[in-house]
Amino acid sequence: MEKMTMKEAGRYSNFLDKMIDELIYMANYGMDSKIYSVIETHKKSASYKDATDEIIEVEFEDESEIDVPNLTKLLEELFLEKSDLAQSIAETKKNLNIEIDADKVMSLDASLEYAKLLRRFSESYLRPLASKKDRKSKEKRTGYAFNVEGNQTPYIYEAEIITKVIFDTKSLSEKIKANNQLADKISQKIDMVMSLESVEFTPKFSYLDSSEDIINKYK
Asked: Minimal CA–CA distance to 144: which of 133, 131, 132, 157?
């Protein structure tokens, strides 16, 4: 049994998905001659007695020479390959843990999610709050008073408005820095783990193959 890194396993998984999609697309749009037999009977004499009737067998230009039964078997093999790979990846992940700090260890998937959440927490919540500033502004306001005749009349005056931030923005800025540093540290550890040859799997195909390469090998 060969071994590959998690990165290689992920690349191979994406390759299998791409091949499956291409072959299914080809079955729907690129192999009519393996699906249909089309005979056209041109009954010309029914409309013009001196004309000669014609029978034409329609020819298709297919993308590949593989037939439906063999394509079905190939796709089944690709599905099984993808499933076996997924199982190998899942088994490998059970033993791949990331040390977040001295007191916290997470699985690979959990640590990936945690690093994303740390950055999301910093950028969508902490940073907008940390950027709040004290403000001072002036606005025109309207007051009302009674004149000598006893009528209520409006008058315009200037109001000075002072807005103060009532929490510690500096501590939030420090938390942003700490969160991002931790997220980077986790990401570095994830990259190291992803580069270990830890997935026990022997691929049947090469991620460099085209769909035509796979069909030719299968034939």
From this structure: 157
DSSP, collapsed to helix, strand or coil, labels residue 155 as strand
In angstroms, rounded to a whole number, what is the distance separating the alpha carbons of residues 160 and 42?
Answer: 92
Domain spans, the chain? 1-96+196-219
User: What's the rounded Cα separation, in Å, for the pair 212 and 62?
Assistant: 12
Distance CA 60, CA 176 (A): 63
Cβ atoms < 10 Å from Cβ of 126: 20
Q: Which two tokens stand for residue 83?
A: 């499933």
For every residue of 3-46, DSSP letters joined together read: EEEHHHHHHHHHHHHHHHHHHHHHHHHS-GGGT---EEEE--TT
At 44-77, the pLDDT tens digits run 889 988 899 899 888 777 667 788 888 899 999 9
Q: How far is Cα 64 from Cα 26, in angstroms, rounded to an integer?
A: 8
